[in-house]
Structures are given as structure tokens and as C-alpha cells.
Design brief:
The chain is mainly alpha-helical and 701 residues long. The chain has a domain of 117 residues. Helix content is 62%, strand content 7%. The strands form six sheets. A three-stranded antiparallel beta sheet has the order 12-11-13, with no helix packed on it. Strands 1-2 form a two-stranded antiparallel ribbon. Strand 5 and strand 6 form a beta hairpin. The two termini are 23 Å apart. It is a multi-pass membrane protein. It is found in: Cell membrane.
Length: 701
């Protein structure tokens, strides 16, 4: 009979569609429009330059165009000694006037000395004046008044710019700390002080900046080596494609090569560790323990210890034994997985365009990430400058209250607290918008998670639809519809946006809770008691498990949506019960397939990683001249390894989706049909042979 006449209820994943989960679809579209509005509002209010450039006492950042600071890009502290006070830690602002200057001072000078020598050395005053408030040119004003009104600094110190701020130019001479070869300096208030006082002051700010300096070095490394990183990722892409094309013809052989390749690499690792361990015998200092030398930033120190190599060797031996045992016990199941992979590679062979679908998902996620990051930065910098009263006297009752610099000189504060000033404190604001910035940041994070999960869901549903149309074609490849990937994408968007958004929403809620738990854990680290820690740990663990379970259910629900076009809840229920009825097969096939694909990813990442290591450490003679000079060679190396893994993951995820889809279709096929002429199987002969034996025998009887 004709292949289409049996089972009128089901005709493959194409016909009889209607829109599903419409309410969720409407909510999703409204949320996206709201998200765009939030981005626009943040863009209007925010200014990321506030983060990059330091801000002076007048609330203008250094280098700001169309202001007096246009060519002044460095921040100068009037009295850096005040930065050692505890106020710095509370307000994160130094309680001294801060000005933007074009370059840092290069000599010692005090206002008293400059004023005294003004008549016969006016050039000294002209140099000193550039560190006074803009427009101040009165060297005859009494010292007490100048210092009270903070018109000029009491002293200047040889400094150099560090992260756009002037810091004393420290150097060590014979173990003694000096600034410009001097150990003491005049503070401009009649005292001679030691240079170590400056060190304490600078340290207050330095702790924050030290971390930044490492960041700057890493950034420099990226700037020099990005070109080579991209080449590494391109090689990873070629390797991944090559693997998938080879899989299409020789899945079995290639996977045994994979497995023995990994065993061989780990075996070589064990031998190398043993060789290093043996080689270090008798070398002085090699018998120290890791505990003895503590934490070192230079990783090479650890490689000179025998204990390090011994630890590596034990870890690798453990991994080797586990892999070999798994191979012995799972050998028959691996054969089944290879049969499914061959079927999968046949499907991909007929629908090659699916291999490049991850690029679409990647672009969608990249757009989401960049939009989220830009919005987050603009939200974080969307405060107005807030000014506070800064008093020299600690007893002033107005200290730390907000003020307005325009009207400040007409208020009582200057009379009650002589020398008090209204200076920039931080970016914030009192308006409704500014009060809810934290809520906006949370909303930004939540919609970001929702959109990312939606992009992934769309990819899974599209691929599932394409591969299902391959499986349910009675004569392969003659009955496979034209443009299966494109039509599957169209179906998913047109009919099932609501269902995909619903699945993504559930995941996004769980992920947001996980983010909040991590944030709480980070915030409460120092203060919490053991019970709170235990509770947080349990919650984090539960939500991690829940997220994993939901991802599994969602993935199979999207496959059912792609096949039958039902709503999300019905599809999830059908998928769950179908999998439960075939639970042993699911466990074996899924895990073996995942394991084999994971080995593939490791091989791609490892191969490219080894190549990158030899390249960046100048071990390849041909390219030795081309290698950029780096601060830390592990920066591009780690990037290449992680990037290669992600590239391989993108390609192999298509494969995993293909196998999962075919497996669900196969289970459906077995339950719906019995191989008779009235209800023939849709599966290919090879699947029929390997997977169907036990299931078929009772039905034939």
C-alpha cells in the first residue's frame, strides 16, 4: 500500500499546526519592548566615561570635552596625606580637593617657599600655579587663608601618573624608601615629614589599583595577541568540521581512535610526570612541599618541586584507570551509541546546513550579551554628581551632608565651619529613577537570562524539527522536504514562540535565583555563621540540580514541540513519560553519546592548546620571529583553549541534538508502529537491526 495511508492521526512534523502558549508569547513581546525602553532610558542618563576617567571635586571628569578639563586627563590630590584617613574607606573619596591637571608635578615645592621667592623667582610661581584652583593668581594671599580655602596645595611632590592619577614617585635606595632621592619633605605647614607617611597615604588608594594593574597587563596581552587567538579559534573550527565530516563515514573507527588517543595522551602525561619527578631527584630545593612555599604568582616555582609532579602523576593515573574501567563495562553500549551516531551523521549528511546553525545561536547570544553589558554599564553610570560638605574640622555638624556647589558660599556652613567646602562625592541621585537603579539592574539581568535561554531553545527546536523531518520521511532521502532547516525555523518562530519563551522563562527564573544566591554568599562571606553557610550551600546545590533537570526536560519538550506542535506543558509531559518508559535506553545512549562527544571536544581543545603553547612559548622555529612579546603567555593560551572548547561544543551540540531527536522519534516509532504493512516502521534498516531486536521479537510472535 501507499506509505502515507496508515495512522491518519500522525503525518510527521509538518502539518496541522496552530499557535501555542499565546499568552506567554504576548508577555514575551511586551517584555522585549520594555527592555528596549530600559536600554534607551539608561543610554540617555548614563555616561560610561565616568567609570574610565577620574572625577575632580567639581563633578567633571578629567579630559571631559567642552570644559576646562579638555586637555587635563590626570587627577591631582591637593593633600595626598589625607588619603591615609579612614574616611577613604567609608566614602571611597579622599577628603581633599582634587583637580585635573595636564601633567603631574616633577619637583618638591611648598606654597610658603614659592610665596617667599615670588618677587625674584616668578617662574616658580607660574609652575606652582598650575596645581592651584583654575583662575587663582594671588601669590600675596596669606598662607593660612589659602590653605583654609584650599585655593592651592600646601606642597607638591614629584609624582608620576598611575591609572590617570598622580602618585608620589617612589623608589627604593639601599633598602630605604625615597621620593626623588629624598627621604624627608616639607609639608608646607611648617613641618618636615618622612616619605613613609606618603607611602601609607598612597597605599590607601594603591590596594584598589594593584588589582587594576594586573588587569591592564592582561588587557595589553589581548591587544597584542588577538590576531593569533583568532587564528587558533579558526583552526579549532576547521578541526571540529573535519571531525564531523569524518564521523559521517567512519563513526566507529574514529571514536575508537578518539578513545585510544585520549588514553595515549594521558599515558604520555603520566610518563612525562614520572620523568620530571625522577629528573628532579637530588636537586636542592626540589624536596620542599607546596605548603612550604605558599601561594606564588609565578607558576614556574611549583614546577621545580617533586611533590607537584607526583600529584599530577597520581591524578592522571586515576583518570586513566576510570576511563579504562568504563570502556570495559560499557563496550556493548558503546556499539549502540556508535550506531546512533552513524544514523545521526547520515541525517546531518542530508541536511548539512544544520552544522552552521550554531552560528545563528551564537550571534543571537552575542547580541544579548552586548546589549546587556552596555545597558548595565550605562545604568551603573547614570547617576548625577552628588556633592557633600567636606570640613577640615572634625566637629563640624554639617560634615558629609549633601550640598549644592552653586549656592554653597551663601549658606551658613562657611561661617560655622571655616574652610568647609562643597566637593564631589560620588555618582548617585535622589530622583525616582536613581532610587530604583538596583531594581533595573536586576530586571536587566533577568531579561538577559530569558533572552539567552530563548535563543538556545529556538536553536534546539529548529534542529529537532529538521532532524525529525529526516526521521519521519518514509523513503530516505526522497521524502525529506525541501529546505528542512529553514522551514523548521519558520515553524518554530511562527507557531511556537510562546512555548519556547515559556520554557526559557522557567529556566531564567531558576538561574536568577542562583545568581542571587551566589551574590548573597559573596556578600555574607565574612559575617555568616556555620548554619547560614550550610543553608546557602544546600540551596545552591538544590537549585543547581533543578536547573540541570529543567534543561533536560526542556530539551526533550522542544523536540516534542517540533514533532507534534503541542503546547509546552503537554509536550514536556509527553516527552517525560516517553523517556521514563525507555529509561534504561535513555541513560545508556545519552550518556555514552555525551561521553564520546565530550572526548571529541577535549581532543580539539587539547590539540589546539598544545599548538598554541608551543607557539606562544617560541618553541616553533618557523614562527619564532612572529611571536608577540607578552606579560603573561597564559592569557592568550587559556583564551585559545577555552575558545576552542566552545567552538567544538557549538558543532558537537548539533550532533548531540540530532542523536537525541532521532532517539525520541525512534521510541515514538516503536510505540506507534509494529512493522506490519499497515503500520510500517520509519526507522532505517541499521537502527532496526541494532536497537529493535528485543522489542521486535514479541510483536512478531
Amino acid at each position: 500500500g501507499e506509505p502515507r495511508k496508515f495512522d491518519p492521526k500522525f503525518r510527521g512534523p509538518i502539518h496541522n499546526r496552530h499557535c501555542t502558549d499565546i499568552i506567554c508569547c504576548v508577555i514575551f513581546i511586551v517584555v522585549i519592548l520594555g527592555y528596549i525602553a530600559l536600554g534607551v532610558v539608561a543610554w540617555v542618563h548614563g555616561d560610561p566615561r565616568k567609570v574610565i576617567y577620574p572625577t575632580d571635586s567639581y563633578g567633571q571628569f578629567c579630559g571631559q570635552k567642552n570644559t576646562l578639563n579638555k586637555n587635563k586627563t590626570i587627577l591631582f590630590y591637593f593633600n595626598i596625606l589625607k588619603c591615609a584617613s579612614p574616611v577613604v574607606l567609608i566614602n571611597l573619596q579622599c577628603p581633599t580637593t582634587q583637580l585635573c591637571v595636564s601633567k603631574c608635578p616633577d619637583r618638591f615645592a611648598t606654597f610658603i617657599d614659592v610665596q617667599a621667592s615670588y618677587r625674584y623667582r616668578p617662574d616658580q610661581w607660574n609652575y606652582f600655579r598650575q596645581f592651584c584652583k583654575p583662575g587663582f593668581n594671588n601669590p600675596r594671599k596669606s598662607v593660612a587663608q589659602v590653605l583654609r580655602d584650599e585655593d592651592c596645595p600646601s606642597m607638591i611632590i614629584p609624582s608620576r601618573p598611575f591609572l590617570k592619577r598622580c602618585f608620589p614617585d617612589f623608589s627604593t635606595k639601599n633598602g630605604v624608601l625615597t621620593v626623588a632621592n629624598q627621604t624627608t619633605f616639607k609639608d608646607g605647614r611648617g613641618k618636615t615629614r618622612n616619605v613613609t607617611d606618603l607611602r601609607e597615604a598612597a597605599n590607601g588608594i594603591n590596594n584598589v589599583l594593584d588589582a587594576r594593574s594586573v588587569g591592564m597587563k592582561i588587557f595589553e596581552d589581548y591587544a597584542i595577541s588577538w590576531y593569533w587567538i583568532l587564528i587558533g579559534l579558526f583552526i579549532a573550527m576547521m578541526l571540529s568540521l573535519l571531525f564531523l565530516v569524518l564521523l559521517r563515514f567512519t563513526a566507529g573507527v574514529l571514536f575508537w581512535i578518539f578513545i585510544f588517543g585520549v588514553i595515549g595522551i594521558i599515558g604520555y602525561g603520566i610518563w612525562h610526570c614520572y620523568w620530571e619527578y625522577d629528573h628532579l631527584k637530588g636537586i636542592p630545593g626540589s624536596d620542599l612541599t607546596v605548603y612550604d612555599i605558599g601561594f606564588q604568582t609565578d607558576f614556574k616555582v611549583y614546577l621545580q618541586l617533586r611533590q607537584t609532579w607526583l600529584a599530577f602523576m597520581i591524578i592522571l593515573c586515576g583518570v586513566e584507570v576510570i576511563i579504562i574501567l568504563m570502556l570495559i563495562f560499557l563496550r556493548s553500549r558503546i556499539r549502540i551509541a556508535i550506531a546512533l551516531l552513524k544514523e545521526g551523521s547520515r541525517a546531518i549528511g542530508y541536511i548539512m546546513s544544520t552544522l552552521f546553525y550554531p552560528i545563528v545561536t551564537f550571534l543571537l547570544i552575542a547580541i544579548c550579551i552586548s546589549y546587556w553589558a552596555v545597558t548595565a554599564v550605562f545604568l551603573a553610570t547614570s547617576g548625577e554628581p552628588v556633592y557633600k560638605v567636606m570640613a577640615n574640622q572634625t566637629l563640624c555638624k554639617y560634615a558629609n551632608l549633601t550640598c549644592d556647589p552653586e549656592t554653597f558660599n551663601t549658606t551658613n556652613v562657611t561661617k560655622l565651619c571655616p574652610g568647609a567646602q562643597c566637593t564631589f562625592a560620588f555618582y548617585g541621585g535622589e530622583s525616582l529613577y536613581h532610587k530604583y537603579i538596583f531594581i533595573f539592574q536586576l530586571a536587566n539581568a533577568f531579561v538577559f537570562l530569558w533572552l539567552v535561554n530563548f535563543a538556545i531553545a529556538l536553536g534546539q527546536c529548529t534542529l529537532a524539527g529538521a532532524f525529525a523531518s529526516y526521521y519521519w520521511a518514509y523513503r530516505k532521502p526522497a521524502d525529506i522536504p525541501l529546505w528542512p532547516l529553514f522551514s523548521s525555523f519558520g515553524r518554530a518562530i511562527r507557531y511556537h514562540t510562546g512555548s519556547l519563551a515559556f520554557g526559557a522563562l522557567i529556566l531564567a527564573i531558576v538561574q536568577l535565583i542562583r545568581v542571587i544566591l551566589e551574590y548573597l554568599d559573596h556578600k555574607l562571606k565574612g559575617t555568616q555563621n556555620s548554619f547560614t553557610r550550610f543553608l546557602l550551600c544546600c540551596l545552591k546545590c538544590c537549585f543547581w540540580c533543578l536547573e540541570k533537570f529543567l534543561k533536560f526536560i526542556n530539551r526533550n519538550a522542544y523536540i516534542m514541540i517540533a514533532i507534534y506542535g503541542k503546547n509546552f506543558c503537554a509536550s514536556a509531559k509527553d516527552a517525560f513519560f516517553l523517556l521514563m518508559r525507555n529509561v534504561v535506553r535513555v541513560a545508556v545512549l545519552d550518556k555514552v553519546t555525551d561521553f564520546l562527544l565530550f572526548l571529541g571536544k577535549i581532543l580539539v581543545a587539547g590539540g589546539v592548546g598544545v599548538l598554541a603553547f608551543f607557539f606562544f612559548t617560541q618553541r616553533i622555529p618557523v614562527f619564532a620571529q612572529e611571536v608577540p612579546m607578552l606579560n603573561y603567555y597564559w592569557v592568550p593560551l587559556l583564551t585559545v583553549i577555552i575558545g576552542s572548547y566552545l567552538v567544538a561544543h557549538g558543532f558537537f551540540s548539533v550532533y548531540a541534538m540530532c542523536v537525541d531527536t532521532l532517539f525520541l522519534c525512534f521510541c515514538e516509532d516503536l510505540e506507534r508502529n509494529d512493522g506490519s504493512t499497515a503500520k510500517p516502521y520509519f526507522m532505517s534498516a541499521s537502527l532496526h537491526r541494532i536497537l529493535g531486536k528485543k522489542k521486535l521479537s514479541p510483536k512478531k510472535a
